[in-house]
Amino acid sequence: MTRLNDFMTRIDLSVLNDYIADNGKNVVYAKGESVVQQGCLCRYVGIVKTGYFKYVALNSKGDEVVTGFSFGDDVVTDYVRGFLFNQTSLTSIVAGCNAEILQVSVEEVRRFLMERHPGFFADASSNLLQEAYRRYLDMLVKTPTERFQELSTRYPGVIKNLSIQEIASYLGISRRQLHRIRETESSVTSKMVDI
């Protein structure tokens, strides 16, 4: 299955998923409630059961910028800062709608993986680095239209489940620019249907 967080398809998450399934606690988050706030230590790692979470940071104007998402069956945590380095988060992880996760403390999972599966950290980290590098290059070399087309083609369900503001922020463009791109896409699609 194609996922927005492609790195999750390239690593074996079964060890982590199984541990959380066996030891996790169901926690419900209301829309807008945070798993962690920017500047705080992320204390939990979980698997999304229902709903979705968005990773957001505040820009210099105080506006939210969406940096990522976790959807159903995805891992939700601040992997790099909180999980690996026990440092405060540079983003907030916020429920995008009423959502439920199965969660365990980061300390508990970290201890388990260090004892039983120490290679997990290197594998997950290298794949996450590749994903981050790909997104960085996409922002530099692809136009906003190309980024939107790729997102909507590879992940059609994502477009349906998110607000216009969340999609625009994730793509690094304004709502107005996204609206124009979508209008152009609709126009091209309708012309193709007429042919």
Strand order of the largest sheet: 1-8-3-6
Broad structural category: alpha+beta
Q: Portion of residues in helices?
A: 40-55%
User: What general outline do the C-alpha atoms trace?
Assistant: globular
Named at the architecture level, the CATH assignment of the domain at 6-118 is Sandwich
- Total count of helical runs of at least 4 residues: 8
Topology:
Layout: H1 14-23, E1 25-29, E2 34-36, E3 44-50, E4 53-58, E5 64-70, E6 75-76, H2 79-84, E7 92-95, E8 99-105, H3 106-116, H4 119-141, H5 144-154, H6 156-161, H7 164-171, H8 175-194
Antiparallel strand pairs: 1-8, 2-7, 3-6, 3-8, 4-5, 4-7
Helix pairs in contact: 7-8
Compact description:
This protein is an alpha+beta fold and 195 residues long. The chain has 8 helices and 8 strands; from the N terminus they run H-E-E-E-E-E-E-H-E-E-H-H-H-H-H-H.
How would you characterize this protein structure?
The protein has 195 residues and is of the alpha+beta class. 49% of the residues lie in helices and 21% in strands. The chain has a domain at 6-118: Jelly Rolls. The strands form 2 sheets. The chain has a 4-stranded antiparallel β-sheet with strand order 1-8-3-6. It has a 4-stranded antiparallel β-sheet with strand order 2-7-4-5. Strand 4 and strand 5 form a beta hairpin. The mean pLDDT is 88.
